[in-house]
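> example.struct
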């Protein structure tokens, strides 16, 4: 059965996942030196998944004024070129 077009996402999962695959868990445990190759892949210890929160940058007052001032001038210049 296929997924309806409206339900598909273009980039896959964008949000943070809270469950890792076994391979991802083993990779993290190897980096933390908590798992060796002699240990089995079953009964792995829990691995903490950190969610990354990206905060939006606030614009400064000076930057907002220059951005709004540049916009009307640019539109006026483009109108004069068309004539």
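> example.seq
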């Amino acid at each position: 059965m296929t997924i309806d077009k409206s339900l598909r996402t273009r980039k896959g999962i964008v949000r943070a996942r809270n469950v890792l695959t076994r391979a991802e868990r083993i990779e993290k445990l190897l980096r933390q030196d908590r798992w060796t190759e002699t240990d089995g892949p079953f009964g792995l210890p829990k691995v903490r998944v950190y969610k990354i929160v990206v905060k939006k940058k606030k614009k400064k007052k000076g930057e907002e004024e220059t951005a709004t001032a540049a916009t009307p001038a640019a539109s006026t210049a483009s109108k004069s070129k068309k004539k």
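> remarks
Residues 13-50 form one domain.
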